[in-house]
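Justification of computing resources. Each target in the renewal requires a structure prediction run like the one illustrated here; the chain below, 134 residues long, is used simply to show the kind of job we budget for.
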Amino acid sequence: LSEAEIASRLASPDGCVASFSLRDRLSDSGVVGLLVAHRAKDSLVVDELAISCRALGRELEDIMIAAATKALMAGWPCRRLKFCYALGPRNTPARDWLNKLSGVALGSSGCMEAGEALRRIDLDRYPVKVETCR
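Resulting structure tokens:
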């Protein structure tokens, strides 16, 4: 999404944005990811998800995305979580993650429901702080 499209989502009553930051006792990586979504009926639809290479491979993707989506869904009557995806030159890690999460083979583009796997993550085990914009 372009900056203008993200700004439009923030201005929309059905749009939302969450960012991810990482910090531990040894380092502060700062902002390492962004999730842009919108509400469609009873679903939160993730349109854009970007995670920096500084954060990939630490096996924190599930935790960050679960925390963000749970926080965004909390303020709305959303029961479903959907991810939109497309085949792109640099999104193989994201498509692999979504494929593993859902257990469903992905086509070249579309939207798929993948909320149950993320909802099962026990966020009480992790010191997660979520800041979202609506």
